[in-house]
Amino acid sequence: MEIKVLGSGCAKCNQLEEATKLAAAKAGIDAHIEHITDMAQIMGFGVMTTPALVVDGEVRVAGRVPSVEDLVALLTRD
User: Fold this and answer.
1) 12-17 own/partner pairs: CB under 8 Å, 24+ apart
2) Which of 12, 13, 66, 78 could form a disulfide bond with 70, CB atoms 3.0-4.6 angstroms apart?
3) Active site residues
4) Across residues 52-62, what is the average pLDDT?
5) pTM for this predicted structure
């Protein structure tokens, strides 16, 4: 699974990255997690508010940091 955390490197962006790592581990998902800070790449996903989470090319969260439990649900849904 390819997961991208989009954000400038702010505290909430880093919080989303850490929560996503915890959620992936909790769900037993083999994931490659990448933190994208380049604004041109972020805009390429159509994201206007960060932090955002992209799973296998699909934006699933933008503008907030979900709980680890919510992230598990987001990562395991089809």
Assistant:
1) 12/50, 12/51, 12/65, 13/37, 13/50, 13/51, 15/51, 15/65, 16/51, 16/53, 16/61, 16/65
2) 66
3) 10, 13
4) 96
5) 0.91
Tokens of 21: 């790592």
pLDDT tens for each residue of 22-40: 999 999 999 999 999 999 9
Question: Which tokens belong to 4?
Answer: 């991208």
